[in-house]
Every structure is written in C-alpha cells, then in structure tokens.
Amino acid sequence: MTFTEAAKTLLWRQSLDKVFFGVICFFSFLSVLPLVLILGYLLVKGVSALNWQFFCRVPQPLGEIGGGIANALLGSLILLAVAFLLAVPLGLLVGIYLAENKKNWLADCARLSVEILQSVPSIVIGLVVYTWLVLPLKTFSALAGGAALALMMLPVSVRSTEETLRLIPLELKEAALALGVPYYRTILRVIVPSGLSGIVTGVLLSLARVAGETAPLLFTAFGNPFLSLALFRPIESLPHLIFYYATSPYAEWHRLAWGASFVLVVGVLFLNLTAKFLTRRWRVRF
Amino acid sequence: MSILAIQNLYVSFLENTVVKNVSMDIEEKKVTAIMGPSGCGKTTVLRSVNRMHELSAHASVTGKVLLRGEDLYALDAILVRRRIGMVFQRPNPFPTMSIYDNVVAGYLLNGLRLGKPELDNLVEESLSSAALWDEVKDSLRRRGAFLSGGQQQRLCIARALAMRPEILLLDEPTSALDPKATASIEELLVQLKKTVTILLVTHNIAQASRVSDFTAFMYLGELVEFGASAKMFTAPQDKRTEEYLTGKFG
C-alpha cells in the first residue's frame, strides 16, 4: 500500500467514525424523547388543574365545578403503606436467606418462585387477592388492595436485597465472626447495614413501580368517591381515579384525571430520584 | 511455656484431607510462623485454631486443639473466637463504622456494654499497640475506608487486640500490602509479642525469618519440620525444607 492510499483509507475511517458517532448520539437523544414528551404533555394538561382545592377536596357530585382528588391521594398513600408493611419485612428476610444460602433446595425453590411471581400478570394477582381477601371479608378493602400491591413488590424487594448482599465481600462477615459475634448479629449489624443503600433503593424502586398499578386494584381496593382511612373499606387510588375519570364523558373529570396523572408521575419520579440520590450518598466502599 | 497445643490434627473438606496429622506446641509470647507453598494447608491449620474453618461447608476435624490445656472443640465457637483474635489477608475494617467503632467493634457487636471512659481507654490503648494512634487520633469519628491499606490492616490488628486475645492469628497479613506497609506490620509484630502470643501464616520465607521465633514448614498437608527459626533457616533437618528455603520449589 502506498503512502497516499494509506492516507485515503485513514480519511475514510475518520469520516466513518464521525458518522457513527453522529448516529449513536441521535439514537441516544431519541431514547430521551419519550420521557420529555410525556412530562411536557402532562405539564401542559395537568398543571392547570392544580390548586389547593385539587389537593384538599374530594370529588364533587356530577355537574358541579371544582373538587379535588384528596381521597385518591390519601388512598394511594395508604395502599402503598400497607403494601410496604406486608412486602418489605418478608422481602428482606427472604433476600437475606437467599444471599446466605446459595445452594440448597429451599433456596432454589424460593428463588424460582419469586422469579415466576414477578412475571405473573398484575390482573391475575388482583383476581387471586379477590378470592383470598375480598370474598371472605365480603367487602373490597384497602387491605386487599395493599396485599395485591405487596405481592407485586415482593419479588423486587427479594431480588434487590439478595443481589445487594451478595456483593458484600465475605471478608466482612469473617471479620465479625472472628470477633466472636454470633451469626444473627453479624447479619443484622454488619452485613445488612453495609448493603443498606442497595436495599433501600430496591424498596423505593419497587414502591415507584407499584404506585402506578391499576389492574390489581380494580377488584381489590375498588375505588371510593369519598375520603376513607379505613383498612376494611373500599379505597380510592390515583391510578384507578385516572382510569375512571379519563374514560368518563365529562370535561371536568378529564381535567381532574390530567391533574392526577401529573401528580402520580411526579411522585414516581421523586421516588426514583430519591433512590438514585441515596445510592450515591450511602454507598459503602469496601 | 506452651500456651496452645495442636495434637494429631486432621482437617478434611468432604473427601479431601488438607491437613494431615499435624502436632505443634505454640510457645507463649513468641511469634510462631507457619510457612509453605500455596495449598499446603497452613491457612486451614490457622483457621482450625479459632474454628473459622467451620464456616466452610462439609469441614470435619479430628485431633485436639488445647488452649492452656482446655479443649477448644468442647467450648462454644463464639467464646473461642473471643479469646483468639484473627487478622485476615485483605484488610477488612467495617465500612459502615467509624475508626473508633471499628476498634471496639468486638464489644459493640457483641452487645458487651462498657462505659465511655473505658471505651476511650481501650481505643487509645489498642490503636497505640497497633502503632496507629498518632496517625488517626484526630479522625477517630471518620470511617475507616479512607485509610491506606497498611493503616487499615493495623486498624484490623487494633480491633483484634481490643478484645485482649490470648492468641493473635494472622493469615498472610501483608500479602495485600506494599513493601513499606509490610515493614511497619512486621516491626509491629515484634513489638506485640511482648504482650500476646502470635501465630502467623505466611508464604514469604524472608518474612518468617525476620519476625518469627519458631517456624513450622508445611508441605502437602503435613508438618515437615517445626523448630526454632534460627535453627531452621540455617540448618534445616529435612531435605524438603532445605529445597523450599533454597527456592527449588514453592
């Protein structure tokens, strides 16, 4: 190959390099676009619905202007709290067990079940909770809704706990055991604190994930146009309110649905960003 | 005087016997080094003294380990580990704890309550013994992770010393450190033997000769030779020891 030929192929490669760089930049930008568009659209449509009434009042009877989504806002918080209380302690314990026992039949069973549970359609989970809790209690309830969401949270919190704890070096566990620290204290006071940021992140992400679930709530929490704090009564939730209002024929309800969507997305975004922040802030270096 | 007696020790994992019929008497307040090539079972011998080998699945032991005549395998493993401290290959301070808490971790984690002045004393005394006090006395409340590797290893030694162990086990404590940090740890070990019995595993022949009073040479799970370091490094009795010392294998 002569010198000029070599210079030519080099020029060709360099221009190819630029083209390729341009292409990946373009597609990276495309991946940002959907989120920006959704947020922008919600901002335009939703913000106009926001005022103090929107947050503090319950929906007005049909035909009256005004009213708010206080019932759904509070309802969603209660549902998430119930789901959190049911799923997180269990998820944590199972996650610890799986991280500590890599190979035995119970661990294999549990790991497989959790994986499969994760892929069960949410509507089916709703149906199952309906037969477990709604039928025996003879009422739709916040408890049933929370239980359905908990079933959806469980796999995520198990997996995130297991994966976080597995990354913790064995040396750390040995250090504690070599000081004569009993096994359970080693786990609770050394291993879990070292993995706390990962565990909390997993829990927050799973909360964010189920906060927007509608299907499992349809026949568990059901919905409630009034403000309710009772565990054994039907309760409203943001996604259900959005579903119900958006499919109604009334412009005033559409406005509320847009506002509620905006609030829901902002809430989920907040959970995600908090999780990101905590991972960075609480990261433990070994 | 002998403080620790290992008698006819066999250790196996499943079918695989890694320590075969090892017997040693460890002298009090001396440094005893166990050396040998990788896989010769030296670490397993060390870990069977504070029963850390029990963490591995399918470990089984026959023979006796006696601490001042007391059978360690008849005691609770947790109590054994409180009396026999251990320092590992890689420095492993607790990453979520401050330097101060790391030193007294044995008390904090075990729920042994001590008063503040007592803890303060213990921290200063242990860090001083580990030759780390001057370097960290102004940052006791900071986490241990920012320390250098050598400082972290000395912190781990301080943590073990704080439990006032009867024996200190060190498993290749300098293999992850640079030469300068290694030198400071070796110097420290010579200081420490005034107060505590030290059992050191090393694959570094020079290190064994520098710091130990007694040396054991292990090969393929067997104790080949055990005696005063001065003698072993000048006039080894066994041909295998001689070959190892002269670098013919290992």
Tell me what the structure shows.
Chain A is mainly α and 286 residues long. Chain A has one domain: MetI-like fold. Chain A has twelve helices and no strands. The N and C termini of chain A lie far apart (53 Å). With 250 residues, chain B is α/β, with parallel strands linked by helices. Chain B has a domain at 2-93 and 166-245: Rossmann fold (3-Layer(aba) Sandwich). In chain B, 37% of the residues lie in helices and 27% in strands. Chain B has a six-stranded mixed β-sheet, sandwiched between helices. A four-stranded antiparallel β-sheet of chain B has the order 2-1-4-5, with helices on one face. In chain B, strand 4 and strand 5 form a beta hairpin. In chain B, helix 5 crosses helix 7 (149-162). The radius of gyration of chain B is 18 Å and the shape is globular. The model of chain B has no long low-confidence stretch (mean pLDDT 92). Chain A binds chain B through residues 169, 171-172, 174-182, 185-186, 189-190, 193-194, 196, 284-286, and chain B through 50, 52, 55, 78-83, 85-86, 88, 90, 92-96, 105-106, 108-111, 145, 156, 159-160, 163.
Outline the fold blueprint.
The complex is a heterodimer of chains A (286) and B (250).
Chain A: H1 3-46, H2 52-56, H3 70-100, H4 105-118, H5 122-137, H6 142-166, H7 170-178, H8 183-194, H9 196-211, H10 215-218, H11 238-246, H12 251-281
Helix pairs in contact in A: 1-12, 3-6, 3-9, 3-11, 4-6, 5-6, 6-9, 7-8, 9-12, 11-12
Chain B: E1 2-13, E2 16-27, E3 31-35, H1 42-49, E4 59-67, E5 70-71, H2 77-83, E6 84-87, H3 99-103, H4 105-110, H5 116-129, H6 133-136, H7 149-162, E7 167-171, H8 179-192, E8 197-202, H9 205-211, E9 214-219, E10 222-228, H10 229-234, H11 239-245
Parallel strand pairs in B: 3-8, 3-9, 6-7, 7-8
Antiparallel strand pairs in B: 1-2, 1-4, 4-5, 9-10
